[in-house]
Design brief:
12 helices, 12 strands, 41% helix
C-alpha cells in the first residue's frame, strides 16, 4: 500500500473505503460482469455503498482497505514511520519524554511504597516502624547515587505552566478526524491526507497523555525537588536494590516487574548433621502470572529440580494467589525464602535431591562442593 501511495496511480474513495483500479484480463472481466449484472443481490443488504467492485468513469475499482481501520492501526502496521512522525511532533511542540506514563504505573507504586517497606529497615534497632512514602524516597535518595540529569529534569517536571500552555495550544488545533471526500484521488492527494490524519491522531493521543501528565505534575508540585528526581530516576530505570530487596522491569513487558529479596548465605544439614553452605541468590516473584516464588540466578538446592536460573521453588502445600497485590507479593517472597532456608528435612529427605550421596547411586544434583 505504501509503495502505491508513492506511485502515479489514481484511487477511488467511497464511504470510508479505498478502492484500487482493477486491471482486467478476460477471466477477471467475466467475474466483474457477473458481479455487476442487474438484479444480483448486494454483498451487504442495506449497505449498497460497500460493494466489492465499483464502476467509475468506465473504469472498474475493487474494494481494498478501510480508511478508518488503517488509520486506527497505523501504529502497528507501520511502527517505524509512526514513531518517526511522533518523534518529530514531540520535537516540534517541545514536549517532554514519556515519563508521566511510567509514573502512573500502579504496579510500580505498589512495589515501591507497599512491598519494599516490609523488607527494609530505616532503624537498625528492634523496633520496626513502617516508613512513610516521603521517608522511602529520602532513603532511596540517600542510598542510590541519582545522576544530576534527573534533578534537572525534576525542575521541568514541577513546572506546570509550560504544560498548561501546550495543552491550550493543542486544544485550539481541534484534532478531528475527517475522512477524504468521495471520488478519484491521486496517490499524492491520498498520501497528503493520510499524513494529516496521522498527525491529527498523534495530536489527539498527546492531548490525552498531557492531560494525565498535568494531573500527575500537580500532585508533585508541592513535593521536594529531590523526591521528584528520585521518582523520575526509578521510573526511567525500572530497577533498584536496597538492603537486599529490589525489583527490575521485564524488558519485553512494559509495566511488568520481577520483585526479589536476597536470601544471603545459609547452612543446611544432611542426615549425618554435616553442614552445607549455600550461596546467596535472589528469590523473586513476577508481577505477572504465575505468582510463584522462583530463583533468578543459576542455582541448585534440594527444592529445585535442575541447576539453572529461573526455576520455581518446589513447595508442596503452596497455593498461588490469582492476583498481584502487596500482601500477596510479601507472602510469596517470605514463603520462598523460608522454603529454601528451613524447608529441607534431612530425616525425610523431602526434596528432589538429597544433600548427601546415597548408597544406591541415582544421577542427581551434587552438593559436595557446598559441604563445610
Amino acid at each position: 500500500m505504501w509503495q502505491l501511495l508513492n506511485s502515479d496511480m489514481e484511487f477511488l474513495v467511497e464511504s470510508d473505503f479505498i478502492y484500487l483500479p482493477l486491471l482486467l484480463d478476460p477471466e477477471i472481466e467475466k467475474e466483474v460482469q457477473a458481479l455487476l449484472r442487474p438484479g444480483r443481490p448486494t454483498e451487504n443488504p442495506g449497505h449498497p455503498v460497500s460493494k466489492t467492485i465499483i464502476t467509475h468513469q468506465d473504469k472498474h475499482f475493487v474494494k481494498a482497505l478501510s480508511i478508518h481501520s488503517v488509520l486506527e492501526n497505523y501504529e502497528v502496521i507501520n511502527a517505524y514511520d509512526y514513531k518517526r512522525r511522533r518523534k518529530e511532533f514531540l520535537r516540534k511542540y517541545q514536549l517532554t519524554r514519556e515519563v508521566e506514563g511510567i509514573l502512573l504505573d500502579d504496579t510500580l507504586k505498589t512495589i515501591l511504597f507497599q512491598v519494599m517497606p516490609y523488607f527494609i529497615r530505616k532503624n537498625r534497632g528492634l523496633q520496626r516502624n513502617k516508613l512513610t512514602d516521603e521517608e522511602i524516597l529520602d532513603l532511596v535518595g540517600a542510598t542510590i547515587d541519582i545522576p544530576a540529569k534527573y534533578y534537572k529534569e525534576a525542575k521541568t517536571f514541577r513546572n506546570v505552566e509550560h504544560l498548561k500552555a501546550l495543552l491550550k495550544g493543542l486544544e485550539n488545533q481541534k484534532p478531528i478526524f475527517k475522512p477524504p471526500v468521495n471520488g478519484l484521488l491521486s496517490a499524492h492527494q491520498l498520501r497528503d491526507w493520510f499524513h494529516e490524519a496521522v498527525h491529527a491522531k498523534i495530536l489527539a493521543h498527546e492531548h490525552d497523555r498531557l492531560t494525565k501528565a498535568l494531573q500527575i505534575r500537580l500532585q508533585f508540585r508541592q513535593a521536594k525537588p529531590e523526591h521528584a528526581a528520585t521518582l523520575l530516576y526509578i521510573a526511567d530505570t525500572g530497577s533498584m536494590e536496597i538492603d537486599g530487596f529490589g525489583f527490575t522491569r521485564k524488558i519485553a513487558y512494559k509495566g511488568e516487574y520481577y520483585v526479589y529479596k536476597r536470601i544471603g548465605e545459609y547452612v543446611l544439614k544432611d542426615y549425618s548433621a554435616r553442614g552445607y553452605l549455600f550461596p546467596d541468590c535472589r528469590v523473586a516473584v513476577s508481577t505477572y502470572t504465575p505468582y510463584r516464588p522462583f530463583v533468578m540466578e543459576k542455582y541448585k538446592h534440594p527444592f529445585l529440580l535442575r541447576h539453572k536460573s529461573g526455576q520455581e521453588i518446589c513447595m508442596k502445600h503452596f497455593v498461588p494467589p490469582n492476583e498481584f497485590t502487596a500482601e500477596n507479593a510479601i507472602r510469596i517472597l517470605e514463603e520462598g525464602l523460608t522454603a529454601l532456608r528451613y524447608g529441607y528435612d534431612a530425616r525425610r529427605r523431602n526434596g528432589y535431591h538429597t544433600l548427601e550421596r546415597t548408597w544406591v547411586y541415582i544421577p542427581t544434583i551434587d552438593f559436595e562442593d557446598y559441604r563445610i
